Each structure stands twice: as C-alpha cells, then as structure tokens.
Amino acid sequence: MQWWRDAVFYQVYVPSFTDSDGDGIGDLQGIRGRLGYLELLGVDALWLSPIYASPMVDNGYDITDHRAVDPVWGDLDAVDELIADAHAHGIRVTVDLVPNHTSDQHSWFRAALASPTGSPERDRYHFRPGQGVGGAEPPNSWRSVFGGSAWTREPARDEGPGEWFLHLFSPAQPDLNWTNLEVWADLDKTLRFWLDRGVDGFRIDAAHGMCKQLDGTPPSSDDDPRFDQDAVHDVHRMIRATLDHYPERVAIGAVGVRNATRFARYVRQDELHLAVDTQLAASRFDAEEVRAAIEDCLNAVGSVGAAASWLLSDHDVSRPASRYGAGPVGTARARAMALVQLALPGAAYLYNGDELGLPDADLPDEARRDAVWHHGEDSRDGCRVPQPWEADLPAYGFTTGEPWLPIPDDYAVLGAAEQLEDTGSTLSLYRRALELRREHPGFQAPPSPGPALEWFGAPPGCLAFRRTGTTLVCALNTSPAPVPLPPGDPLLVSGPLDDGMLPPDTAVWLA
Ligand code: BGC
C-alpha cells in the first residue's frame, strides 16, 4: 500500500512543540502527550526534526551521533514509546535524516583534525590546501548557504599550514565526502538502526546535496557545482534499496532544485518516494504564480509517475500568516492557501503552528538564537517560536519553565484549546478540511492515466481546479474584488462569502 501518496504529514519542530520536563525545550515525551491532539487534527504521519545527539549549533542539524538521541529530547526508550503510541493513534512517524554533513564535534571530524594530510580519517570529509601565499586563501570561491565562504581553515598544525574543510552550511557542519565508502556504509547502518526501531520513513535533509563537483571537472548540474550532481542519485538508489527491505517505509527528499526535469530525477522508480516541492512556499499570494508552481511540480513528478507533495511552510521560512501580508489579511490568505494545498493531488506537509494560524514572532535581537543564518537581516527564529496550547497556563502550556524562545503576547488568543472550541478558528478549518479530505466521496479519485489535475476557466486573479476524476472543486480568489462562485455546493470556505460571491483572499471547496 502506497499510503504516503496521499498522506498528510505534520512537521513537529521538536524544540518548539511541547516540553515535558520544564527545561524550556520541547521533547519526545511532550510530543507523546499531544498524540490525542494530533489524532483530532487528523494527520496521517509525523515528521520529527532531528532528535540525534548534537551540540545544537543548528538546532540538531549538526549531529555527533546519528544513532543516538540527544538527552535534551529524551532517550531511545522515549523514541520507542512515541512510535508505539503514535501507531496506536493511527499516526505514522518519520524522522529527519541528515546525510550531507556531521557536527564538527563528531568523532570522525575530531579524528580528521588529529590526523595527517592525506589520511583515511581526513578522507571522510573534504580537506584541501588553501590557495595563495601560505595557503591563506580558500581553495575555491564556493559560498555557504548560510553566508560567507564554504571553506574554513583548520587551526595551524605542527606539520605545516592547516588545510581548509568544506561546509555548505555552517563551519560547525563539515560536509561528508560521498566518494568515501565508509560514509555510505555508515548511512546504511543508520537507516537500518531506525527502521529496525519501527520508524515509518525519513525526511532527507538537503537531498540534492551530498555529492559535489570539486577539483575542476565540469559540473553536471546547470550552474551549481555544490548541489544536484548526477552522482547523488546513486546515494538515493542505495537508500531506496535499503528501505525496500522494510515494507511501507518512505523516503522523502527536501530537494531544493528548481529545474523541473532535474527535480523529477529524484523521484524515479528506484529513488525517493516523494520530493518536497518548495516552489509553492516561494510563490506570492497570486493566482498566476500559484498555478505556475502547481503545474511545474505536477509536470515534473508526473513525467516519472511519482506523486506530488506540497508544502506551504517549515522551520526555515516565514509563516504563511505573515508572509502573505500583515494582520487579518495575512491570516485570511494563509487560510485560503491551506485549502488550496489540501485540495491538490498528492501528499501534504503541515508545519506545527500553521494549523493555529500563528504569525511569525517579532523577536528582540537579544532573544534570537539562530546564529547560523545570514540571509540579510533575517533569522529563522520568528517561525520557530513554541506552540501555544492554552491561554490560561504559564507559557501557554508549552512548558512549566522558561521557553527557549519567548512566546509573544499575541499568541495568547491562538492557543489550541481555545481554537478547538471555536468553530470559526483556523484550527477548526484545518480539522474540517482534513476530515473532508479523508472522508468526502468528492476526494476519492479512481486511478487514471494522464494529468492529475484539471483546471477550470477562472476570472483574472483567480484559479479553480479539481483532482482528475473527482467532483471536488477548489477555487481561490487573489484578486481585489469578489467573483462569482464556480458551480456546485460550497462544502468549506476559508472565510465568509460575500453575498454568495467569493471575496478576495478567500478559497472555497465545492462539490
Ligand atoms: C534544514 C535547515 C538546516 C540545513 C542544514 C536544511 O535543509 O531544513 O534547518 O539548517 O538543512 O542542515
């Protein structure tokens, strides 16, 4: 059964979901205590951000042991208990996997620094001599995704000038060398370790990374020798071959590749099951842009017979309720886009807190914790603030201690408990949408060849579509004026209709 083709995944950003032990940071027992909520919400699977041993320079994306749980989140028993309980609630559990890099505190990297140039220990990473006088310049001009050079020079050594090591992210995240067979064997061990414990799959971080075109040979991708090299597909085939020994497990890639043809290569029959589209999250609230993003992704995955998967937000981008505009307009648009996302054919990813309509938090500089992100003025903290559960509790029920990021006062009216009681809340909208998606016959499509989606004519600034073979139509109005509803009975509307018309910043499902 290919359960993931149509599944709704819920991303738990573990530090910010629920804290069970009062240290102010979310943890595994905290998640376990919220499984009733997640079942009520109606999601099919969780995606947990990294839970592995880490010095937390990048909130767990810098890993010292891929097969150990960091004590801040709990321990292996807590993982086992969470998986068992989630399964009892009918929810599957997928976990983040970070194959591109380790922490600079990983035993391998420490050993590399302690070993001579050319040693097998160094070969697990990318060490190169510097350029210029005394090797004082980086080996090449590559930039890190987080800003600055992608190379850092190791401290001077007895045997001569230190080499430089490659890190596509922060200097605390040295890149592994994917031409080294030990690196492959270790990932295979990690996959089996977690699969044997019962995880239902992996979200693979930077799945278009890993293989680089270093040392002068021309790159195989169009323009970036750091990413999307042909060799990475061998890594995904290896991952897939391992997963295929475990029934019903899924590999999902965070594939940051814009070119549709190259994106599609990641979801060929023997590679990843799903690749998360990022174009929808990058689109403005504009019907044409949204439609182009949807068409691009569907054409890409359709060309290799894979299912699409849609994401509006995650722990790296501004939340929809802020990104599409400030205040009530942003909220209305985020609600409308949720209906678009959940009507599309394929899998969907929700980011914790989006179901509450949380805006980004405007944090004072001294409270910011994301030290590794240098895109202009932004940090990613604003979208990572802890989840509010109940207005009357200290820290809104997230923790009995001091939350690791301050929770803004305007989250008080967005708590889950209050929203569950309010039929007009964003949480109620998500619950109803997920229920309809699961149960309404208008969503059930018989398998059919050809395009997964049919577009209908729509006024300028609007779009309307349905999944091929179904009766459920979704219409979105991004224009400044109300427009007539398409034919059909409205099943769910993201905001009030205006005299029977679809107002601006609103989406509707009709059957
Ligand atoms: C993750 C980021 C992380 C980066 C480096 C991205 O794919 O989503 O949060 O900082 O990889 O691991």
TrEMBL record:
Location of the Glycosyl hydrolase family 13 catalytic domain? 11-384
One example of the protein's molecular function in GO is: hydrolase activity
Q: Does the keyword Hydrolase apply?
A: yes
Which Pfam families is this protein grouped with? Alpha-amylase
InterPro entries noted in UniProt: GH, GH13_cat_dom, O16G_dom_2
What keywords appear on the UniProt entry?
Answer: Hydrolase
Give the family from UniProt.
Belongs to the glycosyl hydrolase 13 family.
What protein name does the entry list?
Alpha-amylase family glycosyl hydrolase
Upper lineage is:
Bacteria, Bacillati, Actinomycetota, Actinomycetes, Pseudonocardiales
